[in-house]
TrEMBL record:
The chain crosses the membrane at residues 12-39. The lineage of its organism: Bacteria, Bacillati, Actinomycetota, Actinomycetes, Micrococcales. It comes from Serinibacter salmoneus. Keywords: Membrane, Transmembrane, Transmembrane helix. This is Uncharacterized protein. The keyword Transmembrane applies.
Length: 294
């Protein structure tokens, strides 16, 4: 009888030990997930953005702004932006992922073993985007080709027809981000509370840094406001109105990263936490100018 009780006690003790271990492991996993989510929140806000009836998550939209911004800075046609977005959507859902087929990595799934760069380089969205367009512009008459054909000429994918499924979305976002479709791109983002003047100024500074990286433009930061003269944007072909809308769309698309809260262009304004572009009474913003603030 005592031996039976001892065996039951031993089994009970073993069961309790297993449960405790599982609870500890679960707590560690949950802590890791929460930490990862907090890390992500610290770098990019959640939310969704739309253009022409198509939707992207906030982080995807910021990467679309980088892709199209690169085409504008390099004075490439809007078609290049469509090809770039469609390619990145198919390859990685337009995210700089750290895995892929064989040694493929990054937003465009470029392979270090095939001379695309180091693993660190191809996972850098800026490097990956520049390298993609370095190859695309070498494709003869790429602007006249179908998106799938142009993308495949660069990527050499095992599924060349798959790029077509993203063409409509890519065209809608590229059109908005190049200024051809004014007020077409908007983001649904939660409002941001800036605690003091220094915090609001840092938002304008962050936007100015990203503006130079993506579009190659220098803005003027005054207190909490970034003023941008968009007329020198190479890809706008001297069209001040289109250039301003391209910069304005870019500012909204990158707001999840910069924490920008308001964008003004012409007689319209986008405010974080509100729906779409609102008409602003009074004097419009001067042609070719964009105001970006916290």
């Amino acid at each position: 009888m005592n031996q039976a009780r001892g065996r039951r006690g031993a089994r009970l003790g073993a069961t309790v030990s297993v449960v405790v271990v599982l609870l500890v492991i679960g707590a560690v996993v949950i802590t890791g997930i929460v930490a990862a989510l907090r890390w992500g929140d610290a770098h990019i806000a959640s939310g969704r953005c739309s253009a022409g009836g198509h939707w992207l998550e906030a982080d995807q939209t910021a990467n679309a702004a980088l892709i199209v911004g690169t085409t504008l800075r390099r004075d490439l046609p809007a078609r290049a932006g469509t090809i770039g977005i469609a390619t990145a959507m198919q390859e990685s859902r337009m995210r700089p992922i750290d895995y892929g087929d064989r040694d493929s990595l990054g937003m465009f799934q470029q392979r270090p073993s095939q001379g695309w760069g180091t693993p660190e380089q191809v996972q850098d969205p800026v490097y990956a985007t520049e390298t993609f367009f370095d190859h695309l512009v070498r494709v003869p008459d790429y602007t006249e080709l179908e998106v799938t054909v142009a993308a495949q000429a660069v990527q050499r994918s095992a599924f060349p027809d798959a790029y077509a499924q993203h063409e409509d979305l890519a065209r809608a976002f590229a059109s908005a981000l190049t200024g051809w479709s004014p007020a077409a791109l908007t983001c649904d983002l939660d409002p941001v509370s800036h605690q003091d003047e220094e915090a609001t100024e840092s938002v304008a500074q962050e936007a100015a840094t990203l503006l130079a990286r993506d579009l190659g433009l220098e803005g003027q930061v005054t207190a909490d406001l970034l003023r941008v003269d968009a007329t020198s944007l190479p890809g706008a072909d001297g069209d001040a109105g289109r250039a301003a809308w391209a910069v304005a769309a870019w500012a909204v698309a990158t707001a999840p990263v910069t924490a920008v809260g308001t964008v003004q262009v012409a007689d319209r304004a986008w405010h974080r936490g509100e729906e779409g572009w609102q008409e602003v009474p009074g004097e419009p913003v001067p042609a070719g100018t964009v105001r970006i603030g916290a």
